[in-house]
Write a structure and sequence with these properties.
Blueprint lengths: L2 H7 L1 H4 L1 H16 L11 H9 L2 H23 L7 H34 L5 H27 L2 H17 L27 H22 L6 H22 L15 E4 L4 E5 L6 H17 L9 E4 L14 E4 L11 H9 L8 H15 L2 H11 L1 H5 L3 H12 L3 H15 L7
Helix pairs in contact: 3-6, 4-6, 5-6, 5-7, 5-8, 6-7, 7-8, 7-9, 9-10, 12-13, 12-14, 13-14, 13-17
Length: 429
């Protein structure tokens, strides 16, 4: 059968207007949420986000359409026309068309998401797409073989539902390992991509299941030995994937640190992801001035030599101690740097359960030294319940003005005592 004829007669192509419309609708429901990638877009993160929901649907469609193709070839009597090799060759084209059709829908959704985010695909996006194509191929083969044995009138909807539930249902359970072995595309963060273990765990059970179907019901005659081997293959694939993922949480261990980094200046050297570094020349001198002022006032013991944005740092938490700091800088692309968060990070957590109302004084004093007191007060009015209900802006500013008139040594003492009071249930006076 020529490719053009296969395309013209394939159920997947004939159903494309319906499936295409449905996938467009799914994409439009997630379109509004793509906007949060604007300030710091990462192609693999955007792609994983937009295809997370469509992939189970595409896999179900591939299985169902594969079943229709299997029944169609059986009705045409292909399997009785010649040797098994010839029948296999004829069967390849219908399965290939199903895979190409469903993969094109996923590619279209990924392209739409990348276009809205304003980034181009890279090798990590290609990696995701290849993984999805392998999964779609496996499901199309399973559906095709089922449709060859059972009429598509009832086998197509049944296999589609089974595939969709098989991928989606485990995501709602508390068995974290099961989240990573169904082929569902997981969450990726900035600078992350699917690691080798993640890819193997996602592919292994489904690929083994497809191979088991080929072994068990692919031949013209079903043999007990082949069925037994296929069951071992399915069990081995599932156990192998479980062995990889049994200690994982809901977030799999992705490959990290893949985003290009740009650094600027000295004392401190400031490093940010290249994609969010448009304001780095403005941010670095400001951070240098801030750290010198904080050191002069005794807020920090030493001036850091490097400040790294948390999205490209090996330390995945805010840290303002020692020679190397980790802060949230990239969220401030286009002059939206969260200076209030930096003041909070500098003060840190003096104990496990501090009195936040007392600690507001330390943080506002730090923000005033940094020159960002207005940013912190704006943050406080939005985020702090105690500030909204009890503590007033006037009280804080009045105390800041008083401390500002103290000698430097007494200012340092006041700062230390306030932190101690915060861990003793609050300032008594």
């Amino acid at each position: 059968m020529r490719l053009f004829t296969a395309l013209r007669t394939s159920a997947a192509v004939l159903a494309l207007p319906v499936t295409g419309f449905f996938f467009i609708y799914v994409f439009l429901t997630t379109k509004a949420k793509i906007g949060h990638f604007d300030s710091l877009p990462w192609p693999a993160e955007v792609t994983a986000f937009v295809i997370h929901a469509p992939v189970p649907l595409a896999a179900a469609a591939a299985a169902g359409l594969g079943a229709v193709e299997g029944t169609r070839l059986r009705t045409l009597g292909v399997w009785e026309l010649g040797p098994a090799r010839s029948a296999f060759r004829v069967a390849v084209q219908p399965v290939l068309v199903v895979v190409l059709t469903t993969a094109t829908l996923i590619a279209g959704i990924a392209a739409g998401g990348l276009f809205i985010a304003g980034v181009l695909p890279d090798v990590y996006v290609l990696q995701l797409f290849v993984m999805v194509v392998v999964l779609l191929t496996a499901h199309a083969i399973i559906g095709f073989l089922v449709g060859r044995r059972l009429h598509a009138l009832y086998s197509a909807p049944l296999v589609s539902i089974a595939v969709f539930l098989g991928i989606s249902y485990p995501l709602g359970t508390s068995n974290w390992w099961a989240h990573h072995v169904t082929g569902a595309v997981g969450h990726l963060g900035f600078g992350e991509a699917y690691s080798g273990p993640m890819t193997v765990a996602a592919l292994l059970p489904t690929v083994c299941l497809a191979l088991a179907f080929i072994l068990a019901i692919g031949p013209r005659r079903i043999r007990a030995g082949a069925v037994a081997m296929s069951l071992l293959l399915v069990g081995g694939g599932l156990l192998g994937a479980h062995g990889i993922t049994r200690e994982w949480t809901s977030f799999a261990p992705a490959a990290t640190g893949l985003a290009p980094v740009t650094c600027q200046g000295r004392a401190p050297e400031v490093c940010m992801p290249a994609v969010g570094s448009e304001d780095l020349r403005k941010i670095q001198p400001k951070l240098s001035s801030m750290t010198m002022k904080l050191h002069a006032k005794g807020i920090i013991a030493e001036i850091p030599t490097r400040i790294t944005d948390i999205t490209v740092s090996s330390v995945q938490r805010l840290d303002s101690t020692g020679k190397e700091w980790t802060l949230d800088l990239a969220a401030g692309a286009s002059e939206r740097t969260p200076w209030a968060d930096m003041a909070i990070a500098v003060v840190g957590m003096p104990c496990k359960y501090p009195d936040w109302e007392t600690l507001h004084y330390n943080t506002l004093w730090t923000a005033r030294i940094m020159g960002t007191a207005g940013d912190y007060l704006d943050w406080l009015s939005r985020e702090s319940e105690s500030f909204q209900k009890g503590q007033s802006k006037e009280d804080l500013i009045k105390e800041m003005d008083r401390v500002n008139g103290l000698p430097p040594g007494e200012q340092k003492t006041w700062y230390v005592e306030r932190r101690q009071f915060a861990c003793q249930g609050g300032n008594p006076g």
